[in-house]
C-alpha cells in the first residue's frame, strides 16, 4: 500500500506521465461537450460501490471491484469524461480509475447523475464529467494552492477550452475531517474558503455547488462536520443529505445501490437550479 506521505507526489508523476497536447480527436470530442460537471472530494464521490476488501486484518487493504455495472450507470454516447491525460473519452465506470490511482475505484454517483439528467431533460446536450476526487483526503489537502486544488482547476479549465459551460461542482468530502475536534471545528471556515476560491479562479462567481452531507465518518465528530455543511454561508450552494443511504460492510463507503440513489438525488438538485 502506498503511504499517505508519498501519495501526492505519486499522483503528480502519474498525471504528468499522461499529460500531452490536444490531438485532433480530442478537439472533435471537445467541441461536443456543452455541460461540464466537476466531481471532487474523497472516496465516496470517487466511487467505492462494488469494491470488496478480501483482507481480514484491520488496516490491510486487499481490494477488488466486482465489475457489476447497473443500467443506471451504463455508458451513454452523450456522456464523456475528462481522462487523466486531459482527453475527452466516452465515460465508463469506474470514472476515477486514472485519477484516484492509489485506491481501488468502483461505482460512484457520477454516471447515475449524468444518466438521470439526460433522461429527465434530453435537450440538455452532451455532458462532460471531470473526475478530480481522491480517497482519504482532508479539506486541508484541497486548500487553494495545494496539489489537488491546482489539478482540479487545471482539469476544469482544460475541459472548458472549447466553450463548454461549467454547470456545477459536485462535492462530497469531510469524512477525514471527523477525526479530530480541531478539524471538525475548522471545517466550515475551510470549506467556505475553498468554494470562494474555486469560483474566483474559474472566473465563475455564481458557479452552483451541490455538496453532499456526510453519511459516514472516520472519526467521532461527524455531527459537527454535518452541521458545518448545513450552515455554509456561501450563496448558491445546495445541500444533498446522504445520511441514511445504504453503507457497505466497512461502515464508510456507500454501496452501489446507494451510489445510484445519490446520483439521482444530485440530479434532482441540479435540475431544480
From TrEMBL:
Residue ranges of domain Sialate O-acetylesterase in the record: 34-271
Signal sequence interval, chain numbering: 1-24
Keywords assigned: Hydrolase, Signal
A GO molecular-function annotation: hydrolase activity
Organism domain of life: Eukaryota
Protein name: Probable carbohydrate esterase At4g34215
Gene: LOC104248824
